[in-house]
Automatic annotation (TrEMBL):
One of its GO terms (molecular function) is 3D-(3,5/4)-trihydroxycyclohexane-1,2-dione hydrolase activity. CDD domains: TPP_PYR_POX_like. This is 3D-(3,5/4)-trihydroxycyclohexane-1,2-dione acylhydrolase (Decyclizing). The lineage of its organism: Bacteria, Pseudomonadati, Pseudomonadota, Alphaproteobacteria, Rhodobacterales. SUPFAM superfamilies: DHS-like NAD/FAD-binding domain (SSF52467), Thiamin diphosphate-binding fold (THDP-binding) (SSF52518). It comes from Rhodobacter flavimaris. Residues 409-561 form the Thiamine pyrophosphate enzyme TPP-binding domain. InterPro entries: DHS-like_NAD/FAD-binding_dom (IPR029035), Myo_inos_IolD (IPR030817), THDP-binding (IPR029061), Thiamin_PyroP_enz_cen_dom (IPR012000), Thiamin_PyroP_enz_TPP-bd_dom (IPR012001), TPP-bd_CS (IPR000399), TPP_enz (IPR045229), TPP_enzyme_TPP-bd (IPR011766).
Amino acid sequence: METIRLTAAQAMVRWLSVQMTEEGERFIEGMWAIFGHGNVAGIGEALHGARDSFPTWRGQNEQTMAHAAIAYAKAKARRRAHAVTSSIGPGSTNVVTAAALAHVNRLPLLIVAGDVFANRRPDPVLQQVEDFDDGTVSANDCFRPVVRYFDRITRPEHLLTALPRALRVMTDPANCGPACIAFCQDVQAEAWDWPVAFFEPKVWRIRRPEPDQAELAEVAALIGAAKNPVIIAGGGVIYSGAEEALGAFASKHQIPVAETQAGKSALAQAHPMNFGASGVDGSAAANAASRAADLVIGVGTRLQDFTTGSRTMFAPNARLVSINIHGYDAAKHGAVSLVADAKVALEKLSALLGDYNASPDTEARTDWLRAVDAHCAAPTGDGLPSDAQVIGAVQRATGEAAIAMCAAGTMPGALKLLWQPSQGGYHMEYGYSCMGYEVAGAMGIKLAQPAREVICFVGDGSYMMANSELATAVMRRIPFTVVLTDNRGYGCINRLQTLGCGGEPFNNMYVDCNVAVQPTIDYVAHAASMGAHAVKTADIAQLEAEVKAARSRDIPTVIVIDTIARDFPGTGLETSAGEHGHFWDVAVPETSNREKQRNYFARYLEQTAKAKLVN
């Protein structure tokens, strides 16, 4: 057997550089790295040696560079991914939040985390977490619950099995998620005689599982017998590449489509069967269709609480069908399961259904879109604009190819409700709803989709949590536009606290915090200090102009605008029940000395009594 002598780290990098997609590209395009104790000597040297064939990119924070990697994979519909490497200790634990984000959203991410010495000779080393009762534990054990595959490399030859297992998980459409290779720092530098065959290029094919024929027939019969079906389209539609199949299915059979956060823009808003957002932050048209449905057809969705109105959205006698590539998701809420690739399942179901079609209320869709236009129109009076008016301004100023992205706060609900994208024009991290994803995520999206305009909506609260990858984007000349809405605090949670749960304003808006001086943060100066083009707009008209101007730059543009938190129709955030009757289950205190709180709890009991498993 022919061998080649390499360090374990050199072998890992060489192997990663020849793992290919069916299109002939590297599946792992490159590696984000912040070097430190535990990865600079072994992995750092290996990456330097391969810098011409396997790129390394420097981030500003381990969590946010991982967010950029995750956004890249999401924007690539899981067809390609990035790796990240971190040092032992705080470098690694900084990545844990990002790992959880990738896990919840079913997205591929390879984490190569520096670890303690396998030989234990210098223990305890700098930054080592010691477990007094278990000598095998390190800080990297924090990854175990938030990755799909975990392995600790204590001998070089462990990579022969660990690396293929990690890539198998990342390319598996059912079990896709992050993988963590905890790489002991002394082992990284150890040499071993590797089989040359290990470094032969390998093509990773993402399979399309066919449905079970009995499940397929049962689901087709249920749809064929339904008078008022509705489709709930999730992110699995996009990951399957089933957008055209969904559009054709919905059109042929005249079934309205409601969207989850992950599924939004699988169909363009202009598609006649796209009834808009589903659930707590849903549209009047989509939620009316869901309430009237005798059959709910989930396609590629986890049926999260926002989508189902905490299990109060659908009629008590409605049946639920769930088309999903993973049996775990397909069986949720007592659904009739169809375990299969979304594209394959929709095409086969359509053939079985023949000329079946439903009779959706298309007037409700027309009325809703008319209301969206009115709500997003430019303000006519004085005063600060609402988030809806900001969204409307950006929508008017961008081209059809624009991608709107966000992650946390008020904006995800507003965008899901009001943004009218072309196909693929929406990117939301709402499985984990992680504040701080926005700026780094926008950079990752632009790397994946360089020809499309990327608009990052971020509130002042999320911006303050994580903004440093602006500097990375400036250094690498990655242009995108940040629309920073400043409502001077955590406006979304303040509204939930006061309007949703009956509490008093406390510790969310700066004005309600226990501080001696209200902060006056100059976001323009802050962003400009990292090299971004930054400007504060006085009104909606100037915002539109600045969004248009940003397209001419090769660096990020940050546009700051002061806003006031106003309710927008159909979000479910203005009251615990919501304007259109949808409910989000956020526990309300059972006892209180305030009458307002007691009244909210009584209403909470009324709503939770409606919640049930859909079966």
